[in-house]
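User: My instructor asked us to take a sequence, write out its structure as tokens, and then describe one feature of it. I'm not sure where to start. Here is the sequence I was given:
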Amino acid sequence: MQVLLTVGIFAGVALWLFIVLRRLAVLRTQVKLAWAKLEADQSNDAIKTIYNKHVDLYNATLEEFPANLVSMMAGFKAAKRF
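Assistant: Let's start with the prediction itself. The structure tokens for your sequence are:
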């Protein structure tokens, strides 16, 4: 019984970490897509605003628990605002 409980706890933690890692990957993709649009038209203030919004959300997520632990292990770095 104790083995099943331990396996269940490890499975739950692994699932939790996977969800956090997936969220970070999605946010990083959004930042990269916004940067690509910004590179195409740097004079567009709306694109700059969208890019900075994605960067702020991504960076804030990197600082939250447990994302801060996952980001260190997975090599996620903070993005720079425009």
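For the description part of your assignment, you could build on this observation: The radius of gyration is 17 Å. Try explaining in your own words what that tells you about the chain.
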